[in-house]
Amino acid sequence: MARYILKRVLWFIPTLFMVTLLSFMLLVNSPGDPLDLLVNSLNNRQSGTQDIEARKTFWRKQLGLDLPVFYFSVTQLSEPDTLYKIYDKQKRNTYKALLNQSGNAGSVTAYLNQLHHTTQLFYNETGALKLDSTHTYYKEDKELINNSSTTLEALKYETEPEAVQRDLTLLKSSSEALSGAFSKQAADLSQAYDAFLKTKTTYKNYIPKIVWYGPVNRYHRWLFGGKGSKGVIRGDFGISYIKKEPVIAILKDKMIWSLFFSVFSIILAYIISIPIGVHMANKPEGKASKLIQTFMFLLYAMPSFFAGVLLLMLFANPDVLSVF
């Protein structure tokens, strides 16, 4: 007996691990961005202009979304260990696509950083497009500014060499009219992309490597707790992205009614089923027993959600029986 119990306990540990890991992976790969849901709900609740990117950065750290996903990762030799810090999936996919072309993380990072610096010439601190005549190097050519900023936005997610070269050519022609700082940044951007094309080490894409992150990761924080979190094991299910409240507090409000109906349904089931079972045991061939068997068979064959809808239409309908 003791051996059997010990065996079951030992099997419980890997089973629990696999269940929690599967639940976590479903949570991580679920569609939608939790930061968008959280920030949008905050903007709906609060008045005034909100710095969305600053709020996203704050909540990314609060929720631990700036950490690696697991204790380790198996990647390619060309991939930097800090790729997980690029939270935006579209930007991360762009980085990976460029990395697969080059195999040189340094040249990819240099090109994307230069693209970011060039783009910042056209936007102010709030993310709005600069069309202010005080920026003398723009020569107040608003249409050219709009076209150049659109080209730069397209370059953020462009990976095909022909398309990138085409957009860089457009920027070069624009820089001749929008001289000054933009002219220099456009030239630096072209040089960074040329360096990206010339310094290829694609062989690194075919060499695997294992990166160890240790306990400072999202899974460990989600399961065991960490900064600002007690972990799922200790009953901390995090913060609701919609209501911005602890999930456990929301569950407690609903749990009382769920427990009430569960206990009530069990009691009601015993009250009805025991007398019926006794009657059918005493008179198995009686007409009442056969009628009960037929009725129970129909109920058993009926899906519970369909039966629930029928009961709602019958007992919670003002036109029929408004009991509930």
General description of the model:
It is a single chain. By secondary structure, the chain is mainly α. The chain is built from twelve helices and two strands; from the N terminus they run H-H-H-E-H-H-H-H-H-E-H-H-H-H. It has helices spanning 2-28, 34-45, 52-62, 89-102, 105-120, 142-155, 161-177, 181-198, 218-224, 247-282, 287-301, 304-315; strands at 72-76, 208-212. It has a two-stranded antiparallel sheet. Helix 4 (89-102) crosses helix 5, helix 5 (105-120) runs antiparallel to helix 8 (181-198) and helix 7 packs antiparallel against helix 8 (181-198). The radius of gyration is 31 Å and the shape is elongated. It starts with a helix and ends in a 9-residue tail after the last helix.
Write a compact overview of the structure shown:
The protein has 324 residues and is mainly α. The protein has helices at residues 2-28, 34-45, 52-62, 89-102, 105-120, 142-155, 161-177, 181-198, 218-224, 247-282, 287-301, 304-315; strands at 72-76, 208-212. Strands 1-2 form a two-stranded antiparallel ribbon.
Structural class: mainly alpha
Question: Helix segment count?
Answer: 12
Radius of gyration: 31 Å
Mean pLDDT comes to 81
The helix fraction, in percent, is: 55-70%
- Spatial shape: elongated
Q: How many beta-strand segments?
A: 2
Describe the strand arrangement of the main beta sheet, using strand numbers. Answer: 1-2
- Characterize the main sheet: 2 strands, antiparallel
Order of helices and strands: HHHEHHHHHEHHHH
Measured by DSSP, the beta-strand proportion falls in under 5%
